[in-house]
UniProtKB/TrEMBL annotation:
Gene source species: Floridaenema aerugineum BLCC-F46
Keywords: Metal-binding, Metal-thiolate cluster
Organism domain of life: Bacteria
Name recorded for this polypeptide: Metallothionein
A Pfam family it matches: Metallothio_Pro
Length: 53
């Protein structure tokens, strides 16, 4: 059995892969940042290098 420790951010346009231990969990989904978890208020991106969400 393999234990999953990382997962792609649940935000569709986001390219980030997050560690489940560090991810922001909201409604059973895992996000890389508050911006992604909150649906990008004011169009704010996650700010991670190389990601254009």
């Amino acid at each position: 059995m393999t234990t999953v420790t990382t997962m792609k951010c649940a935000c569709e346009s986001c390219l980030c892969v997050v560690s489940l231990s560090e991810a922001i969990q909201k409604e059973g989904k895992y996000y890389c940042s508050d911006a992604c978890a909150n649906g990008h208020p004011e169009g704010k991106g996650c700010g991670h290098q190389g990601c254009g969400c």
